[in-house]
Amino acid sequence: MEGPISMKNDVTNLAKHIVSVEHEHWKIPDGTILAPIYKRAAGFILDVIFVMSILSILGGSFEGQYRVMLAWDLGVWTSPDFHHSLAWSIAILLTHFLYWRYTGLIFSRSLGQRIMGLAILRENGDPMNSKDWDGRSIRKLMYLIPILNIWAFYRDLIRIHLRHTHQSEIDLAIGSIVAIANSLPVAHRSPIK
Q1: Fewer CB under 10 Å: which end of the chain, C or N?
Q2: Strand, coil or helix: what is 92?
Q3: From CA 23, how far away is CA 18, in angstroms rounded?
Q4: Residue 8 pairs with which residues in a beta bridge?
Q5: What's the gap between Cα 186 and its chain centre?
Q6: What angle do CA 1, 14, 178 make, to 5 degrees?
Q7: What is the SS3 assignment for 127?
Q8: CA-to-CA distance for 113 and 87, rounded, in angstroms?
Q9: If we measure between CA atoms, which residue out of 49, 48, 55, 51 comes closest to residue 69?
């Protein structure tokens, strides 16, 4: 006689099996704890502070104001010298892209995510490749563009909260997850530095 719940083949974790049946997939390694929204946001903020600090130091100051701040100066944007604001905007976007890409390739996470104890990996627990980091880095740039960033933050906040996988739109597009690094099985921790 079969019980009310039948398990076939190699089902070892009933909860994981139910989620995989109801939501079509769930390849994440056993024991992995997905990152809460506040840790993800804190990691992002730390990254932006770090990159903007470096740009501020390298760019120097002019008339008591860091030159990098020209990217947000509406007065300069509407003046004949708007090219200064445009140049700094491009520098900010390019620097963040390179920062997220190369810290991802080297550490499998950014420095802010490292401080927060997070890890970025493929849905099945494999490390992300160069193409994945390129796509993730490009998509994260929308969080730096005024007005667009408010919409993107709000959209991802809602979607991360509602999805059982806690994935943002970026995660879904790339096929990645953000997890607590120490919760990963030992076999999946090796690329994370």
Answers
A1: N
A2: helix
A3: 8
A4: none
A5: 22
A6: 165
A7: coil
A8: 28
A9: 55
C-alpha angle with apex 172: 105 to 177, nearest 5 degrees? 50
Cα torsion angle, 70, 73, 75, 78, sign:
positive
Please report, rounded to a whole number, the percentage of residues in the chain having pLDDT higher than 70.
70
**Which residues, 6 or more positions from 84, have their beta carbon under 8 angstroms from its beta carbon?**
67, 70, 76
pLDDT digit string (tens) for 95-106? 999 999 999 998
Torsion, Cα of 36, 104, 116, 72 (10° steps)? -90
Helix (H/G/I), strand (E/B), else coil: 50: helix
CB atoms within 10 A of CB 42: 16
Compute CA distances 133 → 48, 84, 108, 156, whole Å: 17, 29, 9, 19
> According to the per-residue pLDDT averaged within each range, which of 57-61, 82-86, 101-105 is highest?
101-105
Name the nearest CA neighbour of 109 among 178, 16, 52: 178
8 A C-beta contact, residue 107 and residue 101 = no
User: What pLDDT band is residue 176 in, cutting at 50, 70 and 90?
Assistant: confident
Question: In the block, which residue shows the tokens 């709000």?
Answer: 154
DSSP 8-state symbol, 26: -
